[in-house]
Amino acid sequence: xxxxxxxxxxxxxxxxxxxxxxxxxxxxxxxxxxxxxxxxxxxxxxxxxxxxxxxxxxxxxxxxxxxxxxxxxxxxxxxxxxxxxxxxxxxxxxxxxxxxxxxxxxxxxxxxxxxxxxxxxxxxxxxxxxxxxxxxxxxxxxxxxxxxxxxxxxxxxxxxxxxxxxxxxxxxxxxxxxxxxxxxxxxxxxxxxxxxxxxxxxxxxxxxxxxxxxxxxxxxxxxxxxxxxxxxxxxxxxxxxxxxxxxxxxxxxxxxxxxxxxxxxxxxxxxxxxxxx
Length: 277
Ligand code: SAM
Fold this sequence. Notes:
Layout: E1 5-9, H1 21-29, E2 32-35, H2 38-48, E3 54-56, H3 62-74, E4 78-82, H4 94-104, E5 108-111, H5 116-123, E6 131-135, H6 141-151, E7 157-162, H7 167-178, E8 183-188, E9 196-201, H8 202-211, E10 218-222, H9 237-249, H10 254-265, H11 269-276
Parallel strand pairs: 1-4, 1-5, 2-3, 2-4, 6-7
Antiparallel strand pairs: 7-10, 8-9, 8-10
Helix pairs in contact: 7-8, 9-10, 9-11, 10-11
The protein binds S-adenosylmethionine (SAM).
S-adenosylmethionine is lined by residues 13-14, 83, 85-87, 90-92, 115-117, 161-163, 187, 189-192, 217-219.
């Protein structure tokens, strides 16, 4: 690279042919490469016929190695960050390095590439106009429960990542949160030889994987809840105000009467109050 700084480079999620020419160029020009798994990246570099200094950067060394990487960038070197697969900073520690560089005013750029989330979304057959990325559910019981509660009424399509050995539990929890009839697409081994997209319901998926050992990498794309139908109020504000005036005649203040009328009709207290004064 001509300039110092950090470049986030997307790499294939299973098919080497998905590596873009620009990603190969960025790798060849970097002074050094920070890699989530140096063995995986070494294979990629061998495939490209490149030799580059590598430094590992993963969840458990991100503080120490993050400091080393920042020092090298500050001293004028250019760094490419790659993850195990897909876009760095999507459900991997790359987000911390990118944020640390941004905080120090170090230039950060990106050579975009495949990501399992968006690949699964477009294959899911579910609405893509509005969606949320939920990443992994925590294994910590409380954090997991809070996460699930926070999306219980979500109307947008939701994307979850999961490891195969935790899939069974996750499908059960999702079926419990959203109900067994909620649609889901299980997107497995994307871009690989045994790619499979199974469009089904959470109940069916949960039942299958109670019997069968899940294998491979999965993205779960879950349909959002139906949008709530906004109901026309049965009572008009004028009718509610009339009701409130009845209470005022019996001695209630306008605020008290508006509050009671709001409770009785489901209309807003302020709206009724304004009609009373
Ligand atoms: N940075 C990656 C990305 O951009 O998609 C995600 C990294 S995250 C640590 C790994 C998770 O991504 C896996 O557990 C799985 O849920 C999903 N994943 C990655 N590659 C996949 C593939 N080829 N097929 C299905 N899911 C995949």
